[in-house]
Amino acid sequence: xxxxxxxxxxxxxxxxxxQLVDGRFRRGVARGWIAVGDVAFGVLLAVGGLAVGGISIxxxxxxxxxxxxVSIGVFxxxxxxIGVAAVGGAAVAWWAAVGGLALARDIAxxxxxxxxxxxxxxAQELVTRxxxxxxxxxxxxxxxWLLLLAVLPVVMAIRQRRRSEGDRGIHH
Length: 172
What we know:
about 170 residues, two-stranded antiparallel ribbon, 4-stranded parallel sheet, 4 helices, 8 strands, alpha/beta
């Protein structure tokens, strides 16, 4: 599904789901300002197994703000988070990292932490003062609820498939 509204040649919203073509599965690749698909490239928002965009959510996410199992971004949150600032099970950051394993140049807070300021009062203050870390820590506390976000693309794909099958007169 692509929106009819375009901006600078890209659809405002593009949702692309995988499908069987000649007996082979083809991944849905979405490109737009807001993109949702197996592979998603979104200027503002990308949601997918592989998500690349301003705000990226997925299995592997690359972006300004990346949230994923493996996230790489300016601000990264995930199982493995790599960025300028990172929060995750394993967090590797240029500036500040928080996680079970936290590695950074300047600030690190975690079970195992390595940085100029590791597990000290400066690191603790930063985490409580900086918005990214405060919000990320809240998200981590409630992360099981965020798993519901993973269901959203699946529900959308099922609805789209049923709609297209209904249009073609296919019934199960």
